[in-house]
Structure formats: C-alpha cells, structure tokens
Amino acid sequence: MSERPPIPGKGQVRATLLERKLYEVEMPNGFRTRAYLTGDSPPPPSTDLEGETVELEFSPYDMSRGRIVRWGG
Predict the structure, then answer these.
(1) For the chain, what is the domain count?
(2) Where in the sequence is the domain holding 53, given as residue range(s)?
(3) Longest dimension (CA), the chain
(4) Is residue 1 domain-resident?
(5) Please, are residues 28 and 19 in contact by the beta-carbon 8 Å criterion?
(6) Tell me, what CATH number does 15's domain have?
(7) What is the pLDDT of residues 7-19, one digit of tens each?
(8) How far apart are alpha carbons 24 and 35 in whole angstroms?
(9) Which residue has the higher pLDDT, 72 or 67?
(10) From CA 59, how far away is CA 57, in angstroms rounded?
(11) Across-strand partners of 60?
C-alpha cells in the first residue's frame, strides 16, 4: 500500500501556546488547529507571531494538528 501525501494548508497564527514550539492557527474557513515546529521546520521570524501567515502540512489521517513548513506563505 502506498503512503498518502500530506495535505497542504495556509492560515494565520492567532496565539502562541508554547514559545517557539506550538501555535494556534486559524484557517481561512474559520477552522482552528494547533501547529507545531519540528527539527526540520524553519525558525520563527520574530517573537510576536500573531497575524503571521504560515503554510502547513496535515497528515491525511489526522487533521487536528499540523506541521509548519514555511512562514510568510
């Protein structure tokens, strides 16, 4: 069975839950999710991130949280 690719998405950071690790992101349709940074994620551009646009990847099996893949997307 082949692996399913991640689902891309875009949203705006609404809150920082854990400094430089976990953020609450609102998607254009109003859905809010938690997005996290991994070791290969880019570092945040500044400390005040509310309103910053980000690009995310979601697992096709779990859309409740995403991984930040790019800032300012």
Answers:
(1) 1
(2) 7-71
(3) 43
(4) no
(5) no
(6) 2.40.50.140
(7) 999 999 999 998 8
(8) 6
(9) 67
(10) 7
(11) none
